[in-house]
Design goal:
Elements: H1 9-19, E1 28-33, E2 40-47, E3 52-59, E4 62-63, E5 67-71, H2 75-90, E6 98-102, E7 107-111, E8 117-118, H3 119-124, H4 132-146, H5 154-163, H6 167-178, H7 195-203, H8 205-220, E9 224-226, E10 235-238, E11 241-244, E12 251-253, H9 257-276, H10 279-311, H11 322-347, H12 353-356, H13 361-381, H14 388-398
Antiparallel strand pairs: 1-2, 2-3, 3-7, 4-5, 6-7, 8-10, 9-12, 10-11
Helix pairs in contact: 2-4, 4-10, 8-11, 9-10, 9-11, 9-13, 11-13
């Protein structure tokens, strides 16, 4: 008989007392449900002094932002916990710590990150964390290299691909990234003023072919264990610190997808800044986002190549020059996925505060159009953009 039931606040407190690893479990007395995402319940568990001590997260059997009409597997909670544990093995300083997880209850207990802030919220307010981009690049280098064919035994990796098969969550990505924005679908969400721009995107045959190629690579390349949904809203930051969270979309996919997703979210902020802050602050912030792009990619690529030089296990893949050749292919993928993120976050189901919280209607529409145009041009020109400096030059050109 299934053990699953949906937690109440009281259930979350009791669970945290059992599995939170605190020295005084009975000091845990209350829970605050803070989940603002699309899929899960998230409880902050507080002690008698009102201090949050641990987090209890439970998957719901449906997409929360839609309701029970969109059922969803609970196995995603297992995949999330095991992805975080795997990533934490190789990048513990940059991965939220899983204290306990139960696959049948679709629940896990995580370390509390109340001394951190969500990176997206900080970016929207114009706050800059100098270390964040390079630290996130190092997280990506460590996690993607160590779960790739460069490091993993071939037979083990094939078994891991099976263990992390995540068809329902991948289907969400496949639809929301690569299908819905380019057709008239009820899940899409955009203001009528954008309709002419949306119609032009959908009529662009070259764009649709390029997106089809991006989707096909997403479907068929099992290159590394991805976070699968890494963006400025799934990263916590503090002075000198960074933690990746929310890995329920984890699966073995194209290595360029995770870096491309982060790049896309930095550029969503780049596009939105003129509507979020004052003119001079927006100009400075945009330059900082371009610097963040550079730091992110260089931290990731240099870290990956360093690891490949020192730790590649497969003798064929250790051939001098091969890792750099492989990474160049991943770079072109990343630029394309970056563009797809810009488009889907502007007109698809799941939006971002970088654009949606712009109060002035005309400015918001201008920023959204910029995001759509930039996404379109990056997807179309990705094969010709050979390095990070060329990408930054293209962004300046397209702005």
């Amino acid at each position: 008989m299934p053990r699953y039931y949906t937690f109440t606040a009281a259930d979350a407190v009791e669970y945290a007392r059992q599995f939170g690893g605190v020295s005084d479990p009975h000091s845990l007395v209350s829970a605050e449900e803070i989940g603002d995402g699309n899929l899960n319940l998230v409880f902050k568990i507080r002690d008698t002094a009102g201090i949050s001590r641990v987090i209890v997260k439970q998957a719901l059997p449906y997409v929360r932002c839609v309701g029970e009409s969109w059922p969803l597997t609970l196995d995603r909670a297992r995949i999330e916990a095991e992805t975080l544990v795997a990533h934490g093995t190789f990048a513990p300083q940059y991965t939220v710590k899983v204290l306990h997880h139960d696959a049948e209850l679709a629940v896990m207990v995580q370390e509390d990150l109340s001394d951190h802030a969500i990176w997206r919220s900080e970016l929207v307010q114009g706050k800059h964390y100098p270390q964040a981009a390079s630290q996130l690049g190092e997280y990506l280098a460590q996690t993607l290299f160590h779960t790739s064919d460069f490091y993993q035994n071939a037979q083990l990796k094939k078994a891991e691909v099976a263990r992390f098969t995540n068809p329902e969550l991948c289907q969400i990505t496949e639809d929301l990234f690569f299908t819905d924005p380019y057709v008239d679908h009820e899940r899409n969400n955009f203001e009528p003023i954008l309709q002419p721009k949306v119609d032009a995107l959908r009529a662009d045959k070259s764009l649709r072919l390029a997106v089809a190629s991006l989707k096909h690579r997403f479907l068929s390349k099992a290159e590394a264990l991805l976070h699968g949904d890494i963006h400025s809203g799934s990263v916590f930051v503090a002075d000198g610190k960074l933690k990746a969270i929310d890995a329920e979309f984890g699966f073995y996919g194209p290595l360029g997808f995770d870096p491309g997703s982060v790049m896309g979210n930095l550029l969503l902020n780049y596009c939105g800044l003129p509507g979020l802050v004052a003119v001079r602050e927006a100009a400075d912030g945009r330059e900082q986002r371009l610097s963040d792009l550079r730091e992110l990619w260089l931290s990731f690529s240099n870290g990956f190549l360093r690891l490949a030089r020192d730790k590649t296990q497969d003798p064929s893949l250790a051939e001098e020059g091969y890792a750099a050749q492989f990474l160049q292919q991943a770079w072109h993928d990343a630029v394309g996925y970056c563009g797809a993120e810009l488009i889907r976050r502007t007109i698809g189901l799941a939006h971002v505060a970088d654009l949606d919280t712009i109060k002035d209607d005309a400015m918001r529409a201008d920023c959204q159009r910029h995001a759509l145009s930039l996404g379109q041009k990056l997807i179309l020109t990705a094969p010709q953009i050979d390095d990070i400096e060329s990408l930054i030059a293209r962004i300046r050109q397209f702005s």
